[in-house]
Amino acid sequence: MTRFLKVIIVIISIGIFSFPLWESYTERLMDKMAYAEQEGDVLVTRAKIWQTRLKEFNSSPLIGVGFASVDTSSGAKFDKTEGRVEPGSSWLAVLSMVGLFGFVPFILIIAGYLKFVFKDKTNPTNSAFPGGLLFLFIVHMMAEGYVLSAGSGLFFYFWLVMGNIEIIRKQQHNNP
């Protein structure tokens, strides 16, 4: 435990002493926090995006507005020069982009993997880490929309974790 605390103290010290080097990269974050404080709501920027996703879902609940698409009439945040959509939440992005026909299978896949990693008795050490990461992603996807954003780093890691769980599941199925 002391070794762990020493490592944590070293990491925090490096962060504090190197702050002048990376302080300029936090300007956008500081501006967002100042805007949220001015509006009186920490989630003010997210709430607007979430409302947009819900409007898109309500416009086409079964099939959605389309993969990697936005309904520009709903006030969606869309960068035309780079072609990026700001989904705001992965759960709402999946729901609005692919509708219920895409959302239900997506939920079933994730639920199946969660069930597998929690009930894995044959080799829980193999599935504990990817299961923990999957749970972290499930919670994190409420605030960040990267599940359908190919090219995003978190998109890559999320689907990598999903693929690793599938590999572990197939290995156990082949070697009972």
Tell me what the structure shows.
The model has no long low-confidence stretch (mean pLDDT 84). The chain has one domain (43-174). The protein starts with a helix and ends with a helix. With 176 residues, it is mainly alpha-helical. A two-stranded antiparallel ribbon has the order 1-2. It contains seven helices and two strands. A hairpin with a 4-residue loop joins strand 1 and strand 2 (84-85).
Structural class, from helix and strand content? mainly alpha
Q: Number of folding domains?
A: 1
Spatial gap, N to C terminus: 37 Å
> Major sheet: order of its strands?
1-2
Shape label: flat
Which whole number gives the mean pLDDT?
A: 84
Number of strands: 2
Helix proportion: 55-70%
Strand content: under 5%
Strand/helix succession: HHHHEEHHH
What are the segments in which pLDDT stays under 50 over at least 5 consecutive residues? none
The biggest beta sheet is recorded as: 2 strands, antiparallel
Radius of gyration: 20 Å
Helix count? 7
Write out key terms for the chains shown:
single chain, 176 residues, mainly alpha, two-stranded antiparallel sheet, 7 helices, 67% helix
What's the gist of this structure?
With 176 residues, this protein is mainly α. The chain has helices at 2-17, 19-22, 27-39, 44-59, 90-119, 124-140, 153-174, and strands spanning 78-79, 84-85.
Secondary structure: elements and pairs:
Blueprint: H1 2-17, H2 19-22, H3 27-39, H4 44-59, E1 78-79, E2 84-85, H5 90-119, H6 124-140, H7 153-174
Antiparallel strand pairs: 1-2
